[in-house]
Every structure is written in C-alpha cells, then in structure tokens.
Amino acid sequence: MKVLSGMALLALMSVPAAAQSVSQQQLATCAGIQNALQRLVCYDKLAQGEGVDVAAAVSTNNNSSSNTNGPAQAQPQPSYEEEFGKEHRDYAKNRPDRLNVDISSYKQDPYGKWTITLSNGQVWKQSETSSNFSFDEGASYFIERGVLNSFFLGRTDLNTRLRVRRID
Questions:
Q1: Angle, alpha carbons 50-55-60 (nearest 5°)
Q2: Tens digit of pLDDT for each residue in 72-89?
Q3: Cβ-contact 164, 153 below 8 angstroms
Q4: Domain total in the chain
Q5: Max CA-CA distance within the chain?
Q6: Could you tell me if 88 and 133 lie in one domain?
Q7: Fewer CB within 10 A of the terminal residue: the chain, N end or C end?
Q8: What is the model's pTM?
Q9: Is the pLDDT assigned to residue 18 strictly greater than 50?
Q10: Alpha-carbon separation of residue 145 from 8, 44, 79, 131, 159 (angstroms)
Q11: pLDDT, the chain, mean
C-alpha cells in the first residue's frame, strides 16, 4: 500500500514539471511591450501555456509606439485666473500659489459670512465664522492657496486672512 501511494504521489508531482515552463526571456518580452492591451494579451498567452514569439512581440511593440507618437492636438487652455479655485474639479500642475485680485463688491449674509465678488467675475464666500478681517477701499488683496484645497483671502498691508471658497 505504501509503495502504491508513493508511486501515485510521484506521478502527481511530475505533472507540473512536464508542463511548459515560462522563461524569463518571455516574461521580459511581455514586460517590454508599451501598449497595455497588447501586454495583457502577451501575459494571457503565457498563462495559457502558449509560447510568445519574441520577434513578433518586439515588432508589435514598435508599431504601437510609432502610432502613439503622432502630433498632439493642442487644446486651448483657460487662463489661470479663470480656473483659480477650481483645481479640485480638474487637477493640473504648475498652478500659482497666490493671485492678486481686485474686489468689486462684498456683502455680509445674515450669518455674518462675507460674499466677495472680484473684478474678474469670480465669487468667493467666507467659510469660517471666526475672523476679524476688515475691508478697505484702497487696499490691495490676494487669494492664496492653503493645504487640502483651501484658499485664503488676505490683504497685503495686514497680517490677517479670511478662509474662503469659490462658489461660482
């Protein structure tokens, strides 16, 4: 009985060894493919036990990379003033951290929060209630970026800021 079970165990262990093994060169060939879909197809073929032709994979990779390097279509970009405060909606890098603004009007709601309209048409609203911020007709103002998509309205001549959010 022990001999029979030993032979059965030996037979079961030899089945995976007889299966086709994937070489490191085939894995490297699949990893070198730039197109994600073609790379996935290559890995699927390896998983199913089919061999991957190295020359065909390299030529497919060269064809896909030559097609993707075509001329890029230029999209008109809105100015940073138009998009200032909307970055959380459409993230883009290299945005300014501070924007000098001119205030055209400001009013206080019944809850004591300020609504500020800028000369470029943007509308910002105070998001904190505890502030001793004061407006002056001759002062110059700025909006600067804080952490976690927060923004502050400040005056250049005072060391006080008002936390605001863009509402338009």
A1: 90
A2: 566 777 777 877 877 665
A3: yes
A4: 2
A5: 102
A6: yes
A7: N
A8: 0.46
A9: no
A10: 71, 47, 17, 18, 16
A11: 78
* Structural domain includes residue 75: no
Report the DSSP beta bridge partners of residue 164.
Answer: 126, 151
Whether 116 maps to a domain, the answer reads yes
One domain, residues 54 and 101: no
- Reference 44, options 162, 164, 17, 36; nearest CA is 36
Residues 96, 162 within the same domain: yes
Q: Do 105 and 122 touch, CB atoms closer than 8 A?
A: no
Task: Examine residue 74 and state whether it is found in any structural domain, yes or no.
Answer: no
Same domain for 121 and 161, yes or no, is yes
Helix (H) or strand (E) holding 12: helix 2-18
Question: What average pLDDT does the segment 129-136 reach?
Answer: 81
Pairing of strands 141-145, 98-101: antiparallel
Do 52 and 109 reside in the same domain of the chain? Answer: no
Do 57 and 93 lie in a common domain?
no
What is the dihedral sign for C-alpha 119, 120, 126, 132? negative
User: Which is it for strands 103-108 and 141-145: parallel, antiparallel or unpaired?
Assistant: unpaired
Are 62 and 88 found together in one domain?
Answer: no
The strand order across the sheet containing 141-145 reads: 98-101, 141-145, 151-155, 161-166, 123-126, 114-118, 103-108
Neighbour tally for 159: CB within 10 Å: 6
The helix or strand, by DSSP H or E, that contains position 135, with its residue range, turns out to be none
The whole domain housing 131 covers 80-166
